[in-house]
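Illustration: ABC transporter substrate-binding protein.
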Amino acid sequence: MTLTLSTVLGDHGQTAALKSGVVGVAGAELAFEAFKRMPDAYRIQARTAKFDVCELAPTTYLVARAAGTPITALPIPMTRRFRHAGVVRRADSPIREPKDLEGRRVGIRAYTVTAGTWTRGVLAEEYGLDTGKVQWFTEEEENVPDVALPPNVTRVEGRRLADLFAAGDLDAGFAGLAGIGEPGEGESFIDLFENPAPLEAAWFRKTGIYPIHGLITVRDEVLAANPGLAPALMDAFVAAKRVYLDGVFSGALDGAEDKRYRKLAAVVGDPLPYGFSANRASLEALVRMSENQGFVSGLPPLEELFLPIEAPAYQTEEA
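Result:
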């Protein structure tokens, strides 16, 4: 009898072959449920473990595990993006370097969002920013309710971060979905780092950390009842990734995200590495940064948080 798994995945190139049925999971069928906004699915999974298989923001996963949600992550990151870029300042702001954010008001959608955790971690570990001296303003509720946040985090009521930034009530903010959105007509944002790409490449060569956004989580009950499921899922995700990256590196796929991964391959090799060992440095860093930023503690060992399953790397000409 085929196991049917309720499944939520974002629309990524590397999941397209799974969603279309070109690639299947041995012994199981993925029954996909669609969400217009993935953060809505994140909240449901983090709070109730409703779905058998569900993509989840990595920091949301850590908070959910700390709160006792019965899910476990597989080392299958969905997207990768360096996080030196993304914090923007007003044109009239005196902010010029990370330490200048201390004592300032900075907007972020929610304190525990993964993009913010990575960026705060980079600014703290590489540039000496004391994140406890920044006034963080948030707009949305956290994905896991009642998570304990540092005292320098304030939830905005009745106003949007974008409006606060435009009015000068915020000194800086995370651009895009992580905070204040995109510039309006006639507006421009000034990034904290004028040219972040070389800084990101140097940081990767120094640390081996390649920031993770999105992980695959599975309900513990399902894993316990189906011992072969985790490796079967890994095999399927690897096969779907191979289909995608073959298209990326052949030039058959040439969208903005496809071009971004081709460019990243020159720095990291496989732009979407799966498996525990390939991601260990990044997973360790994410846990460390989350604990240092004060919203998780007492997590189990890394091998319990992320199942230690391995996967082959995709070999690129750039690698």
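Reading the tokens back as a structure: The first strand starts at residue 3 and ends at 8.
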